[in-house]
Design a protein that fits this description.
The chain has about 450 residues and is of the alpha/beta class. The chain has two domains: about 180 residues, Alpha-Beta Complex (Aspartate Aminotransferase, domain 1), CATH 3.90.1150; about 260 residues, Type I PLP-dependent aspartate aminotransferase-like (Major domain) (Aspartate Aminotransferase, domain 2, 3-Layer(aba) Sandwich), CATH 3.40.640. The protein contains 15 helices and 15 strands. The protein has a seven-stranded mixed beta sheet, with helices on both faces. The chain has a four-stranded mixed beta sheet with strand order 1-2-3-13. β11 and β12 form a beta hairpin. α4 packs antiparallel against α12, α5 crosses α12 and α8 packs parallel to α9. The N terminus is likely disordered. Keywords: Aminotransferase, Pyridoxal phosphate, Transferase. This is Aspartate aminotransferase family protein. InterPro entries: Aminotrans_3, Aminotrans_3_PPA_site, PyrdxlP-dep_Trfase, PyrdxlP-dep_Trfase_major, PyrdxlP-dep_Trfase_small.
């Protein structure tokens, strides 16, 4: 199959890089048996990444050790945002678990303390928070709030967005995978693609496209509830232009809708410029949602909103989540927030991300490999194309790099509707030696191509 064929229609990034369970003959007998046992008991929906599956047994910081004792550099996982098994998180969780782990029906000062500190990082407008278990729940709750407050039901998301896997949220997560069908109350807007559109035009074009979505909803008798945006457009292929969102937000407000900033990917200092994506983009968000990195792997998420939104919803709709806001996950989240501040991880993200960006760009230029390197802080993308004139997506090269890096014991992935964009998203504690190791192995893989 040629890359030109891939360029004609979207490619499922998970499927492109998933192990084909019928093609495991090259793997050792023990791994083959484990794959078969997994499929027998867990069914066919789960996917394994890499042509040679990783079998991790322990991790610390930015390193993962596999069953053979080999150490891998993790440049992919944002869930352990401050590093795998960070001692501060381990200690906080262990201590709290020995004391109390109950829910928000009781008056617990530790939850209030954390809520005050978390909302303070968002600024003066977003002052109320509700806790969930996951980013999916956070986005589900945020849209419930938007619909309740506005009376509308329409949703605008980017073309290849992913916002979660509840029944409602998956309905406006077009990158969920095969079988996704666009609902009548959902409109898709192309992301602000600065690789194919000039920076001066991208903001106006994006705002015009959002306006067209609103008009199309209205033609069908559907009022807008909200536009929900990951400010990094992570699943769309990672676009970090600073100017693309404010004009579109104004269009949404004029139509009576709310703006929801999905901070699962860009939040907690990952961009290096601000604690939250909506701050980096000067986006006047009504609601911001959080998930995966919040508790460094423990199940906690959050919805931070303007008091006017939270009051209008909460006065009519009592909310309770048995596990949302439990003491133990809150202890983990408090430790994450403390470490980000005390270890100055936002500045580290900016510094190490800039080095990775420049280093990858230099390797690709030396090799003459047509591509675009972009991103912010410790969230970087490399888009591979067949040539810089047509900019036809090249997913086969991207897949070759991912598996080449895995063979050299560095973990990355791919993203985007054509699965041709490398996703480099390491923990925020990425060190100078980690950067040096990554760039050495990346340069080797690119030269091998």
């Amino acid at each position: 199959m040629t890359t030109q064929q891939f360029g004609a229609s979207p490619v499922d990034a998970v499927e492109l890089n998933a192990l084909d369970p019928s093609d495991i003959s090259a793997l050792d007998a023990d791994t083959q048996q484990l794959i078969q046992r997994r499929r027998d008991v867990m069914g066919p929906a789960y996917r394994l990444v890499y042509t040679d599956p990783l079998r991790p047994v322990r991790a610390l910081g930015t390193k993962i050790v596999d069953v053979n004792g080999d150490e891998y550099l993790d440049a992919y996982n944002n869930v352990p945002s401050i590093g795998h098994n960070h001692p501060r998180v381990v200690e906080a969780v262990t201590r709290q678990l020995s004391l109390l782990n109950t829910n928000t029906r009781y008056l617990c000062s530790d939850i209030i303390d954390y809520a005050e500190q978390l909302t303070a990082t968002h600024g003066p407008e977003l002052r109320n928070v509700m806790f969930t278990c996951t980013g999916s729940e956070s986005n589900d709750l945020a849209m419930r709030m938007a619909r309740h407050v506005t009376g509308g039901t329409g949703v605008i998301v980017s073309n290849h967005a992913y916002h979660g896997n509840t029944r409602d949220v998956s309905g406006w997560s077009p990158s969920s995978g095969g079988g996704w069908t666009q609902r009548a109350d959902v409109r898709l807007v192309p992301p602000p693609d600065t690789f194919r559109t000039t920076a001066s035009a991208v903001a106006e074009e994006f705002a015009d496209q959002v306006a067209a979505c609103i008009a199309d909803l209205a033609d069908d008798g559907i009022a807008l509830a909200a536009m929900i945006i990951d400010p990094l457009f992570s699943s769309d292929g990672l676009y970090a232009d600073r100017t693309s969102l404010t004009a579109a937000a104004e269009v949404v407000y004029r139509a009576g809708g709310l703006v929801i900033s999905d901070e699962v990917q860009p939040g907690f200092g990952r961009t290096g410029d601000a604690m939250w994506g909506h701050q980096r983009w000067n986006l006047d968000a009504d609601i911001a949602t959080m998930g995966k990195p919040m508790g460094n792997g423990l199940p906690i998420g959050g919805v931070v909103a303007k008091p006017s939104v939270m009051s209008a919803f909460g006065s009519d709709v009592p909310y309770f989540n048995t596990f949302g806001g439990e003491n133990v996950p809150v202890a983990a989240a408090q430790a994450v927030l403390d470490v980000i501040r005390e270890e100055n991880l936002m500045a580290n993200s900016a510094d190490k991300g800039a080095q990775l960006l420049a280093g990858m760009r230099a390797s690709l230029q030396r090799a003459g490999r047509p591509s675009d390197v972009r991103g912010a802080g410790l969230y970087l993308g490399v888009e591979f194309v067949t040539d810089l004139d047509t900019k036809t997506p090249d997913p086969l090269i991207a897949s070759a790099v991912v598996n080449g890096m895995r063979r050299r014991r560095v973990l990355i992935s791919v993203v985007g509707p054509y699965a041709n964009v490398l996703k480099v998203r390491p923990p925020l504690v990425f060190s100078q030696s980690d950067v040096d190791r990554f760039l050495t192995e990346f340069d080797h893989v690119i030269r091998e191509l």
